[in-house]
Write a structure and sequence with these properties.
This protein has about 1300 residues and is of the alpha/beta class. The chain is built from 38 helices and 42 strands. Helix content is about 35%, strand content about 20%.
């Protein structure tokens, strides 16, 4: 095995050399003859047999360190750390122990060099600390006195002839350096006095800065005041099998505080440039004792729970150290429970073990620390932080986060309330899976953490629909350069971004290796604060989930405590401000905990997220331990849970060999005398309409109309337009509708692009469409005497198959020929013609019979209905009314003026008792305001039975109104032009909120990610559609057709699907919700925003009749602008935008509040009834505020503070300027609020600034809080 591995190492790159080679009798096979991976023996972490012995002392020291840390004896100089089971946490231990042996390496070196030999060659020299000498931390101001005292000691040694202790000489050098290199004082004398005043009775021994995570925790802990929950309280509970002595416990606590300076820290910020922590000379942990022995067991349990809950909710005063307390409960039967509650700003999870071990050791000694090693000091870590090269660190993080343009946010926007205790959901992997995960990591030279991180990234990708995701990761933060870093109690932890970009073509193994390499590149710089990194990226938040990997020795340390101290149980409750925190505890069986805010994620949702993580992790392990570990692609990893498999594809229901024109002829034969069409004062029965269609069809056949030919229709809205449309379909040709309101150049382009065999028009219209050299196609002008005579002479009876042999019934592929060509706008500026076959129209007719016609007819009592045709014939949505015509109902074609006049159209619907209208949601809102849904037979008001909606997203206001109106309902019809008329449909009776519904007959709707994998229910994905109604493609645009009409991996061979570019989400009930576009999402400050949500919020305001939100470019960025039509009779005035802004801020995140709100008389519409963005007036975006000068002393003070904290000119802030619009963020908010409290002498919480971010708003809050003015700070004696 050794020689084989050596040969591989000579021939292959290092990453491809197996970590272990096992000799076995034969390779086990599955019944199908493939390698049975699960039957292979698992390699155990062991050094390579016959590995090279260390060549020198440096290699020998590192081999011994590897063996001690990994628990693997006999490690050779060329053995790989990660193949032997190393990970990111143990790499820190290796680096720390190496320094104790005089070798200067860091955790990143362990990742990059991996073997003792490579590390020994790269390690620098490091003077180890003398373990016999106790570390002493002194304030810088006392270093000179200590140096003088130490000089006297050394001088005495030299005079006596005794050997001078080199450790003392080294200490003198450090003290002298500190004296000779004076540091800039942390605080001015005035600021120091403020700290001492805030400390109250606690005498201040020293003042320290805060670590990055401490700053973040301080911000969140002071964001809310009063009785609000502080989620950064940790509660450790220890159950003992014996009684504890409270006196001994107090003695142990006193000694613990004396030995560990950092535990006596308090925190202040008022009147300071930034928060600071002061060290009290003396402090004592409060210890409360409750004897519950006499209570019945049930009552005792209830009382215990009550005491713990009350303790959990009791906040610490951060200015009153120590920020920890003990609760001792006597439970009876000789059992006690000790509860240690502390603020996480003091110590982290690693330190929690150190705290408990030292506390219990001191308890056994009754507080006597004699013989115990002196602990290190947290001050050394803060000093180390201050000496780091921030510029180099920032450059490394800029490289790591370059191009990350959108935060990874999974929590619902705008729903986050006050702080809450997260709910924990647990899953434990099987012993087999846990072992296989560790084995897979070793086999491929990876850390288990890399596998866990990548699995979480894949889950986040599914939840957000993004391929470039980030999440927070908690790093240990204990640098090897800090003496005894592993033994110091303090907050070393830091939260940094973990970014993982997913490439569908990349192999999973390459993804994992890249993720590990990218993480290693920033490991030396994980001390930077998250706020700093977020500002560098331009995002106020990069992520809202946190990943925590606990240390691997937790089981062993807990077992030691149990054995040594009679502990029968240990538990912990703590939290973070993150909506989701994934915690992995690497025990024998890997334990995974998802801590979820219950106000944002219900139990079912959290359970599914946790199950998805464990499932993806198991599948990842399966791939890495399988035969295709090196070739399996990222895109091939399934992210769905077993129960989420897509329902069976929609049945491929057969389509009869009839066109809609054939079906209309059949209808005319059955109901010849029924009124079919009405236009103004004209009307046609079905027999009359059918006769007209047949005559014109024969005329077109005579001109050469037939399959694969096109006929252009340039006719005004009229009975002739409907006649001509169906006449073309009777011939088997395709019609090209031309909207006469479009510019003539655009219409000419369509005609030239299509090359129709003729242009059906009138003498009034045709001249405008001719080119310089005459007509672009042979003209057939219906109002000329010759054409009229020719039509009159033709038979009016039905068209026979003999007259159209190429389109006769029974001809194979008859319905595959194009029925129409409709042009839509193109991204290149050139319109593109969508070619749609006949089969889609016939399928749509059959779908509507079941889904729309029958329910609407039943709701109207079973009678024939009247339908208003209001949609442009150049819009495929116009077929909705025509299908009603085919079904036998009376269709009223509204002329151009009538269909665009909301008031006139409602009056027409009342006068003619119209039962069905088909409009865009924007136009529906106008019609509703004009009284469309009013019902009063006595007054001649008729309410339609059905309102069809399509063409754009339906706002909540329209949906809710239709749903709540008795006797009517709405039906949303979704479908791009590339799929015949509709793809999906949903009724207001199906859903309380707007939905695009379910796939129609013969249609398959796939919700896929960027790797063409189905996304889980409830997650965003792009909609791909396939089925009977799919268009052929774009006319003579093969490249564009191939780009948008792609192979359907879920269909039969050769089937295609259309990539809509629409973002949707599938609900648990199967209904689809439209979320927006995938290719033009709005991004403001890095956040993805759906303008429809803001529009709905504006529309909900009582002073707003209609609203729209658009994006406009401004100064190189994008800004949201809201346009509002005030309610009739209202008094908008100049204050309306302010009132609307206040309204929006009450329900939306700040980044969703438009930069400008513009009142307008009306919202302009395009010819298709959609919002005409280009016709909206330009907004005024000259500044974030009005520039109003301050009017009150409070406003003057706050303007000055805003400007100072934000680094703006003194006159650069007006009373209406927004702190965050001016560039403020959470850390600056902490600074501003602290200074405002001191300057104004009022009580303010950071939440006040977030809720009232302008000078004027905040000034009003300070005026209200005058009654609760802060007491003046005075220096303590």
């Amino acid at each position: 095995a050794g020689s084989l591995r050596a040969a591989l190492a000579d021939a292959l790159p290092a990453p491809m050399v197996p970590g272990a080679v096992l000799l076995i009798g034969e390779l086990p096979l599955t019944p199908s003859g493939k390698l049975d991976v699960n039957a292979l023996p698992a390699p155990t972490p062991a050094p390579a047999p016959g590995g090279r012995a260390p060549a020198d002392e440096r290699e020998r020291a590192l081999c011994d360190i590897f063996s001690a840390v990994l628990g693997v004896p006999g490690i050779g100089a060329d053995d790989d750390f990660f193949t032997l089971g190393g990970d990111s946490l143990t790499s820190i231990t290796v680096a720390t122990r190496a320094r104790e042996h005089g070798l200067s390496i860091g955790p990143r070196d362990v990742f990059e060099r991996r073997t003792p030999a490579a590390l020994a060659a790269a390690a620098g020299e490091h003077t180890p600390r003398n373990p016999a000498a106790s570390d002493v931390t002194l304030p810088a101001t006392e270093a000179d006195r200590a140096a003088a005292a130490l000089k006297a000691v050394l001088a005495g040694q030299e005079q006596s002839g005794a050997a001078v202790d080199p450790a003392l000489r080294a200490l003198l050098d450090r003290l002298t350096t500190a004296v000779d290199t004076p540091e800039t004082p942390l605080l001015t004398p005035e600021e120091t006095a403020r700290v001492e005043a805030a400390a109250g009775a606690s005498r201040v021994a020293d003042v320290w800065p805060l670590s990055p995570l401490q700053e973040g925790m301080y911000f969140h802990a002071t964001y809310d005041t009063g009785d609000a929950l502080d989620v950064y309280l940790s509660q450790e509970t220890l159950d003992f099998d014996h009684r504890l002595d409270a006196t001994r416990l107090r003695a142990a606590c006193r000694t613990l505080l004396e030995r560990n300076t950092g535990l006596r820290a308090g925190f202040v910020s008022d009147g300071l440039p930034r928060p600071a922590q002061f060290i009290a000379e003396h402090a004592e942990f409060p210890l409360a004792e409750h004897d519950l022995c006499a209570l019945p067991s049930d009552e005792r349990r209830a009382r215990t729970d009550e005491l713990l809950a009350a303790d959990r909710r009791r906040r610490f005063d951060l200015t009153a150290p120590p920020l920890a307390r003990l609760l001792l409960l006597h439970l009876g039967d000789g059992r006690d429970r000790l509860v240690v509650t502390h603020h996480l700003i003091l110590w982290d999870g690693w330190s929690a073990w150190l705290f408990l071990e030292e506390l219990l050791a001191l308890y056994e000694r009754a507080g006597d620390a004699t013989g115990l090693p002196a602990p290190g000091s947290y001050r050394d870590y803060l000093t180390w932080l201050d000496r780091q090269d921030t510029g180099t660190a920032l450059a490394a993080w800029r490289r790591a986060l370059a191009g990350f343009d959108e935060p990874t946010l999974v929590a619902p926007a705008g729903r986050e309330g006050g702080p809450v205790i997260p709910a924990d959901f647990d899953a434990t992997l099987s012993r087999e899976t846990s072992d296989r995960l560790r084995t897979a990591a070793r086999r491929h030279g990876l850390t288990p953490n890399t596998l866990l991180n990548t699995a979480w990234a894949l889950v986040l990708s599914a939840l957000t629909g993004r391929t470039d995701v980030a999440f927070g990761t908690a790093v240990a933060g204990r640098p090897a350069d800090v003496p005894d870093a592993a033994g110091i109690i303090g907050m070393f932890l830091n939260t940094v971004p973990a970014r993982i970009a997913l490439d569908p073509g990349e192999s999973l193994l390459d993804l994992l290796r890249r993720a590990q390499s990218e993480r290693a590149a920033v490991m030396p710089y994980e001390y930077l604060g998250l706020g700093t990194l977020q500002r560098e990226t331009g995002h106020r938040r990069l992520f809202d989930t946190l990943f925590v990997l606990r240390s691997a020795d937790g089981e062993e340390r807990a077992a030691t405590l149990r054995r040594r101290h009679g502990i029968t149980g240990i538990s912990n409750v703590d939290g973070t401000h993150f909506p989701l925190t994934l915690i992995v505890t690497p025990e024998t069986r890997l334990r995974v905990t998802l801590a979820a805010r219950p106000d944002l994620f219900d139990a079912d949702t959290a359970t599914v997220i946790l199950a998805r993580f464990t499932t993806v992790l198991e599948r990842l392990v399966d791939v890495l331990t399988g035969p295709e570990a090196g070739s399996a692609r990222t895109a091939g990893l399934d992210l769905l849970l077993p129960g989420e498999r897509t329902a069976p594809a929609a049945a491929r229901e057969p389509v009869p060999d009839d066109t809609v024109a054939d079906l209309l002829a059949d209808r005319a034969a059955r109901t010849p005398d029924a009124v079919a069409l009405v236009f103004g004062g004209q009307s046609l029965t079905y027999a009359e309409l059918d006769a007209r269609i047949n005559r014109l069809a024969r005329l077109l056949l005579a001109r050469g109309a037939g399959p694969e030919k096109a006929v252009a229709l340039a006719l005004p809205r009229s009975l002739d337009m409907v006649t001509a449309l169906f006449a073309v379909l009777r011939t088997g040709a395709a019609y090209l509708p031309l909207d006469l309101d479009h510019p003539a150049d655009r219409l000419r382009l369509m005609v030239a692009d299509t090359g129709p065999l003729c242009l059906v028009s009138t003498t009034a219209v045709a001249p405008a469409l001719r080119g310089e050299e005459g007509p672009l196609a042979p003209e057939l002008l219906l109002d000329t005497p010759s054409v009229s005579a020719e039509l009159s002479a033709l038979p009016h009876d039905g068209i026979t198959d003999a007259e159209r042999p190429a389109f006769a019934r029974g001809v194979p592929g008859r319905l595959e020929h194009p029925a129409y060509i409709i042009y839509t706008s193109g991204s290149t500026g050139r319109p593109k013609g969508v070619v749609t076959p006949y089969r889609g129209l016939t399928n749509m007719q059959l779908n509507h019979q079941r889904e729309i016609f029958d329910p609407a007819i039943a709701s109207a009592g079973g009678r024939r209905l009247r339908i208003a045709h209001t949609v442009s014939f150049a819009f495929d949505m116009s077929w909705e009314e025509l299908l009603w015509l085919v079904e036998g109902h009376e269709v009223h074609v509204c002329d151009e003026e009538l269909r665009r006049d909301a008031e006139a159209l409602v009056a027409y619907c009342d006068r003619h008792a119209v039962d069905v209208v088909n409009v865009t949601p924007t136009y529906a809102q106008l019609l509703i305001e004009e009284g469309l849904l009013e019902q009063d037979p006595a007054a001649g008001r008729h309410r339609p039975a059905l309102v069809l909606l399509g063409g754009e997203a339906v706002p909540d206001s329209v949906w809710t109104r239709l749903r709540s109106t008795e006797g009517t309902y709405g039906y949303n019809l979704y479908g791009p032009t590339e799929y015949t008329i509709n793809t999906l449909g949903g009724s207001t009776t199906d859903s309380a909120t707007p939905t695009v519904g379910l796939p129609i007959r013969g249609t398959r709707a796939h919700v896929l990610d960027t790797m063409l994998r189905p996304v889980p229910p409830g997650c965003p994905g792009e909609l791909y559609i396939a089925g009977t109604g799919l268009a052929r493609g774009y006319h003579e645009r093969p490249g564009l057709t191939a780009e948008r009409f792609v192979a359907d991996p879920f269909g039969e061979p050769g089937e295609r699907m259309y990539r809509t570019g629409d973002l949707v989400r599938r609900r648990p009930d199967g209904l689809l919700d439209f979320l927006g576009r995938t290719d033009d999402q709005v991004k403001i400050r890095g956040y993805r925003i759906e303008p429809a949500e803001i529009t709905a919020a504006l529309s909900a305001h009582p002073e707003v009749a209609r609203a729209a939100v658009v994006v406009v470019p401004s100064a190189g960025t994008k800004r949201l602008v809201g346009y509002v039509v005030p309610e009739e009779g209202g008094q908008p005035g100049e204050d309306l935008p302010r009132r609307l802004r206040d309204h929006l801020r009450s329900g939306l995140p700040d980044y969703m509040v438009p930069a400008a709100l513009v009142p307008v008389d009306t919202l302009p519409l395009t010819v298709n009834g959609k919002l005409d963005v280009k016709a909206l007036p330009a907004p005024d975006l000259t500044g974030p505020g009005t520039g109003r000068p301050p009017r009150t002393p409070h406003e003057e003070t706050l303007c000055a503070l805003f400007a100072d904290v934000l680094g703006l000119p003194e006159d650069g802030v007006g009373a209406d300027d927004d702190f965050f619009d001016l560039g403020g963020h959470s850390l600056l908010a902490t600074r501003l609020v602290g200074r405002a409290r001191a300057a104004l002498g009022v009580e303010l919480a950071i939440r006040d600034l977030f809720e009232a971010p302008t000078v004027a708003e905040l000034a009003r809050r300070t005026a209200r809080s005058d009654a609760a003015a802060r007491p003046a700070l005075t220096a303590g004696e």
